[in-house]
Design brief:
Strand order of the largest sheet of chain A: 5-11-10-1-9-7-8
Number of domains of chain A: 1
Oligomer: heterodimer
Radius of gyration of chain A: 22 Å
Number of strands of chain B: 6
CATH class of chain A: Alpha Beta
Largest sheet of chain B: 2 strands, antiparallel
Structural class of chain B: mainly alpha
Strand content of chain A: 5-15%
Radius of gyration of chain B: 26 Å
Shape of chain A: globular
Largest sheet of chain A: 7 strands, mixed
Number of helices of chain A: 10
Structural class of chain A: alpha/beta
Chain lengths: 417, 518
């Protein structure tokens, strides 16, 4: 009997590790398995950091000399004397990101301005879905863009430990047919290892055969069993890597820094980790965003300092690592009456790493006049976010997204690498 | 797979899994004795809760029935505050009393109430019309009242009434920023501001700056969008951005009186309201000068009665109670019931139970428990005694679903896809072992829980405990794994003790694949 559930993860967990490819994608995408027989052409890693809530990129890559900017943001706007890190004659970094100055100078930091989605939704949830599935407006796509990469480059017998998220729940960009591990922090400890051993037999680890069971664990039960099995096997591997790993620098004490520290250990171990997904929440600054002081600044300082430590810790590994910082949309050009900003349209991205053409601003800037603004209120989108994703996949992992990878879209060129 | 109809016992198990937070050890027999129909009637009854002891004990949580205004006293800084660390700690503790008591009450109800369906439904509505303590300080005093006057009051009533109540509740207006939304100031008002500030400060640029800021206070679309996207029509169904703006305009001035002098009740502020006729979903809503709030009320009511809302709410109910991807035929049936009754909840439940789909074997035991359902069902199956509710909050937090703490207006998801990431199982296992092993101080399984096991046949204990925790039965692999543990224990123990082997088996059963499903 044909069951009636969604074609995404459930089907996938059923086939996890058994078959490669995209056979479960909506057929409308016309993604056949053969068109996805790609292999990775170079060793590299991509760390994808998602700022949840619609981060205000206009106050991150700041047009600090623009009068229109200042009159639209009389209280939260940033000037040179506020400590803006001057990048060029036009743009500067928010003082919270001052730790990145050296990355800019060593040409490892490539900001992209006015990036965003062609879809005009101002809903967080939709915008995040569309961006993480890299299919704006197309609700039939339910696999994350990073997961599609993993599935497309899957090799027989390869390590199942190619991707992870240090989140209790997997970010949407990593959901889909390829099994990706979500690591709860408690599993980084010894006690975690003991817990896993207790449940081995229940979930068929070590010789457990999936077939031949009686009627009890039917369809959906199977999904649970497989999920448990994958959990045990991959968490073990992760614990092992952390135990052997070391850090060469100190990280800020926050949660985000700690996560990056763990990731650096895994990357330095050379275990073949390709994709990491990390969430950083709380960027929905409707009120109390502030300028040089305020919530936005506090978060930016943590983000900036933690990532700087991460880059230092990676050392030469940074040469083959790309860090992508993104968000679902930018915020309104004008500040609101609550020292904050509301949901907007165009935003920005940061691409950071060894191979990027850093030390210069990427993307096309449009003037902040009523003509240049989107609907007269938001930053315009001059670069489709998929252009950045495509180039990052190619530049960091040697993977050229084939036709259909981004449904109904052929990415343009940016020269990010 | 056999597709024969569910047996009487299986139907009873199904009811306890979907309309209750799983069975307590005695529940299955009781339901079978009482009969399906009588049990359901009782679940939908509006008579007082039969568990009088619980009702009496909840009375001791003094903040549960307080208005936001009364709760506000808890958040005020103590007069005797001497600024010391100790005083600050005390103030913080006091501020959190309403939140903690609410969470304690909800857990106790989910675990102990006889009217289980009411609690399950409350959870559904709580997520459908989500508000969250994470929104900020004011939420602390608003949400107990929201739970009582919006969710609980209407959970067995009409959705339309619940929606209208939520739209006038400070907790919702605050959560989705509508309390800040106001008509944009006119040119004249801006000039007045400019002049006033210029005169006061003697600075032309300060005057202009003040006018700029004043000019930016205006419409906040957040709530208007979420009403349509999440509460009624479903995302991008029927409405466009211009509808969002129209609704947001009608809802300007829907705010509440906050701050230390406020009453913390709903307030319609004419001075914030954008007057004028508006068009929502193609229908004109005339301005009502006498009663300007009427326009917004009429819009929300129209949304509640819209066919799109009937379909959306029905789909969500079917997903919640039946299957992650609900059968369209069932959704249609519920939609019909909704349209007939303005979203009368008991009628929709009746319609659900009368359907073939609800009882289909395909859906039996086939829905993944959310973390909340997992924890509550564990507590019930084990008759736990909870003395420290902060531990429950902690556990739910670890698994990603603390009560009234969902940041996203979507509320917590109820599908396996949203929860079943590899790695997530590890959190459940930790919880299972900790709970069964008595490692969680403040949440205890009564020691005599294991005394009812037949002491003379320790090899059967695993079967008895399986019957309590997973009455639908365990698969071969789980049975084998439990036998392994039993054998290991019996090989060492001179006198088998059910209080030693019992907890070990229970920890594993809670973490077994079978217990994750309902």
């Amino acid at each position: 009997m044909k069951s009636n559930h969604s074609p995404s993860r459930r089907d996938f967990l059923r086939t996890a590790g058994l078959t490669a490819g995209f056979t479960l994608c909506p057929s409308s995408l016309a993604l056949s398995r053969s068109s996805f027989s790609w292999t990775k052409k170079k060793p590299g890693s991509l760390v994808c950091i998602y700022l949840r809530g619609g981060a205000d990129f206009l106050n991150m890559i700041v047009p600090y000399r623009d009068d229109a900017y200042h009159s639209a943001r009389p209280t939260i706007g940033l000037r040179k004397e506020d400590g803006v890190v001057e990048l060029d004659s036009k743009f500067g970094l928010h003082p919270g990101l001052s730790a990145w100055e050296s990355l800019w100078k060593s040409k490892k930091l490539a900001p992209v301005v006015m990036v965003g989605s062609p879809h005009t939704t101002r809903s967080h949830f939709d915008a995040q879905d569309f961006m993480e599935f890299a299919a704006p407006g197309d609700r039939s796509v339910r696999t994350g863009w990073l997961n599609r990469y993993l599935a497309a480059t899957q090799k027989k017998g390869a390590s199942e430990f190619r991707a992870m998220a240090l989140e209790k729940l997997l970010p949407r960009s990593l959901r889909g047919n390829y099994p990706v591990l979500a690591v709860p922090r408690s599993m980084e400890k010894k006690r975690g290892a003991k817990t896993l051993s207790r449940f081995e037999e229940f979930y068929g680890v070590g010789g457990g055969v999936m077939e031949g069971d009686d009627s009890m664990m039917d369809r959906d039960g199977d999904v649970v069993v497989k999920s448990g099995k994958v959990t045990i096997e991959t968490l073990r591997r992760y614990q092992d890597l952390l135990e052997k790993g070391t850090s060469s620098v100190k990280y800020p004490s926050g949660n985000f820094g700690k996560k990056l520290q763990s990731i650096a250990k895994v990357l330095k171990s050379g275990s073949g980790l390709e994709i990491v997904g990390l969430d950083y929440g709380g960027w929905d600054d409707h009120a109390g965003q502030g300028g040089v002081e305020g919530n936005h600044h506090t978060r930016l300082a943590d983000l900036g300092n933690s990532l700087k430590s991460f880059c230092d810790d990676l050392g030469s590994i940074l040469d083959t690592t790309t860090i992508l910082v993104m968000t679902e949309f930018g915020r309104t050009f004008r500040e609101n009456g609550n020292s904050g900003t509301d949901h907007g349209h165009g935003g920005g991205m940061f691409v950071l790493g060894g191979g990027v053409r850093g030390g210069r601003i990427h993307g096309k800037w449009r003037s902040l006049t009523s003509d240049g603004l989107y609907q007269g209120r938001d930053l315009a989108v001059t670069t489709d976010f998929r252009d950045v994703l495509a180039e990052v996949l190619h530049g960091s992992l040697g993977f050229e997204p084939p036709k259909g990878f981004f449904p109904n879209y052929s990415p343009g060129h940016l020269n990010l690498y | 797979m056999s597709m024969e109809p569910l047996s009487r016992k299986e139907r009873a198990i199904h009811l306890l899994n979907r309309f209750a937070y799983g069975p307590r050890p005695e529940d299955l027999d009781m339901l079978l004795e009482q009969g399906e129909k009588a049990w359901l009637e009782e679940q939908l009854s509006s008579a007082p809760e039969p568990n009088r002891a619980l009702t009496a004990q909840l009375k001791e949580l003094e903040t549960l029935d307080l208005t936001p205004h009364e709760c506000f006293e808890y958040t005020e800084v103590d007069q005797e505050n001497d600024g010391s660390e100790e005083a600050r700690r005390k103030a913080r503790e006091r501020q959190n009393i309403p939140r903690k008591q609410l969470s304690q009450a909800l857990v106790r109800r989910a675990v102990e109430k006889e009217r289980q369906l009411e609690e399950v439904l409350c959870d559904f509505w709580r997520n459908h019309l989500n508000v969250s303590f994470t929104k900020g300080n004011q939420a602390r005093i608003l949400i107990s009242d929201y739970e009582r006057t919006v969710v609980r009051r209407h959970t067995l009533g009409n959705f339309e009434d619940m929606l209208m109540a939520s739209a006038e509740h400070p907790a919702m207006l605050h959560y989705l920023d509508n309390h800040l939304s106001r008509k944009p100031p006119t040119e004249q008002e801006l000039r007045d501001v400019e002049r006033r500030v210029r005169r006061r400060t003697g600075s032309r640029s300060q005057g202009e700056e003040a006018a700029t800021i004043a000019g930016q206070k205006g419409l906040n679309e957040n709530y208007a969008r979420e009403i349509m996207e999440l509460h009624t029509l479903g995302v991008d169904n029927y409405y466009k951005q211009k509808d969002v703006i129209a609704l947001a305009g009608a809802l300007t001035g829907w705010t509440f009186s906050g701050g230390s002098r406020g009453t913390h009740t709903f307030e319609f502020r004419k001075d914030m309201h954008a007057f004028g006729d508006k068009r929502l979903l193609g229908k004109i809503f005339k301005e009502d000068k006498e009663n300007p709030q009427a326009q917004g009320l009429a819009m929300v009511q129209m949304l509640a009665r819209h066919k799109g809302t009937a379909a959306f709410v029905s789909m969500k109910l079917a997903r919640f109670f039946v299957a992650d991807v609900p059968p369209p035929s069932l959704v249609k049936r519920l939609t019909k019931a909704y349209k007939k009754t303005k979203g009368n909840v008991p009628s929709m439940i009746q319609s659900l139970v009368a359907s073939e789909e609800f009882w289909s074997r395909e859906h039996y035991r086939a829905k993944f428990k959310t973390p909340y359902e997992f924890v509550m069902s564990a507590f019930r199956a084990l008759n736990v005694e909870i003395s420290d509710f902060s531990k429950v909050h902690r556990a739910l937090m670890d698994m990603g679903q603390p009560i009234y703490h969902c940041d996203d207006p979507t509320g917590y998801y109820d599908t396996a896809e949203s929860w079943l990431d590899p790695g997530v199982m590890a959190l459940r296992w930790e919880f299972a072992l900790g709970l069964a092993g008595g490692k969680v101080k403040g949440i205890e399984i009564p020691p005599n829980y294991y005394d009812s096991l037949p002491q003379e046949v320790p090899r059967l204990w695993q079967h008895y405990l399986t019957e309590y925790l997973v009455p639908s039965g365990a698969g071969k692999r789980t049975r084998n794994a439990l036998s392994t543990i039993t054998n290991q224990y019996l090989a060492k123990a001179r006198v088998p003790d059910s209080r030693v082997l019992g907890p070990e088996l229970v920890g594993l059963l809670l973490g077994s694949p079978e217990f994750q499903q309902q």
